[in-house]
Design a protein that fits this description.
Length: 338
């Protein structure tokens, strides 16, 4: 009786429905019959094409929910939402990332990493920039050779506000193969980190230090300020020489090596990158090593604080074959295009 009542109501309402809406409902009814005629054992199985058909029909004519009998209306809505999510996941997919790194460049990064075990990703990246390769530092770190070496904390530079006319000097001790002690003296300018002067002696005196300062700076190129520690070697002779050259003496506070951070950082680099890997035979040998390292430090070695440039600015070469030139017997290498 209730079914007959629904049929009568449908007949009465049908003239007021649009033709397209009636066609959609008829298509939904026909497709349900097709699915039921498959007669597969168990529950009714829906193929993806069936789901796609009902979802598309539902998007155009939501009224087909009234004629669905083999599935619940909420099931069709769930299919529609799942399809919407998959569509936008496909539309928002990544269309590509960074361009791939060339095989030759990967091999060059590994070669430089193997030949220079003391270099990290920033140093390798700066060398590649000087060779004309446009590559990210993260890519360099990715293709470097992995080592199981403990990480070392870098030196902090506490003196930030400096002027181009400031220099710093310091002494450090180097043992020889015979356990004798040699004293190396360095002077560095703070603006471009130039290693201005380096020399070696067995018996440092105030007269010797004063003579080194005179030889390091011509009278018209002397800095305005000189930072030093309070070692007793810097006696009256040294302070008078500085005053005569127009240099203002700036000793650090007692037991405060961080106030002479640039010189301490330079000495640390000399030890880590050179002296810690070489056995010194004597004064002449040490002087040759330090002067060779000074040339490498000023002309070739890149600095992060100088925007990955050398103290003596290096031009960028983009053409020519790459040559690897050993420095300090192969402890470091210089890469250049020829």
């Amino acid at each position: 009786m209730i079914g007959l009542l629904y049929f009568v109501l449908a007949v009465l309402v049908s003239p007021f429905k649009s033709k397209m809406r009636l066609e959609a409902e008829n298509a939904a009814l026909r497709h349900q019959l097709i699915i039921l005629r498959r007669r597969l054992p168990g529950r009714i199985q829906f193929a993806n094409s069936d789901r796609w058909f009902f979802v598309r029909l539902y998007r155009w004519f939501p009224s087909i929910l009234q004629v669905l009998t083999i599935i619940r209306p909420e099931t069709l809505v769930r299919w529609h939402r799942a399809g919407f999510r998959r569509y936008w996941r496909w539309k928002s997919r990544s269309l590509g990332g960074r361009p791939p790194i060339a095989v030759g460049l990967r091999a060059l990064i590994r070669q430089m990493s193997v030949e220079n075990p003391l270099w990290g990703a920033p140093r390798l990246h700066s060398e590649l920039l000087k060779l004309g390769f446009e590559v990210a530092q993260s890519s360099v770190a990715k293709y470097m050779v992995r080592r199981r070496a403990p990480s070392h904390q870098g030196w902090r530079i506490f003196l930030r506000n400096h002027a181009p006319d400031i220099a710093a000097m310091d002494l450090f001790v180097v043992p020889t193969v015979g356990f004798d002690l040699l004293y190396a003296f360095v002077i560095v300018r703070l603006d471009r980190r130039n290693l201005v002067w380096v020399n070696v002696t067995r018996n440092p005196t105030a007269e010797w230090v004063a003579r080194q300062i005179t030889e390091a700076f011509p009278w018209d190129e002397a800095p305005g300020y000189m930072i030093r520690d309070r070692d007793c070697i810097y006696g009256t002779i040294v302070t008078r020489r500085l005053r005569a050259m127009g240099i203002r003496d700036k000793p650090t506070a007692p037991a405060s090596p961080w106030q002479n951070g640039f010189a301490e950082r330079l000495i640390g680099s000399i030890r880590r990158e050179c002296l810690d890997h070489i056995i010194v035979f004597g004064e002449t040998h040490l002087r040759q090593i330090l002067r060779s390292y000074a040339r490498y430090y000023n002309d070739i070695r890149t600095h992060r604080s100088l925007d990955k440039d050398a103290p003596v600015s290096r031009p960028v070469h983009r053409t020519g074959s790459i040559k690897s030139l050993p420095i300090l017997g192969g402890l470091h290498h210089h890469y250049a295009r020829v």
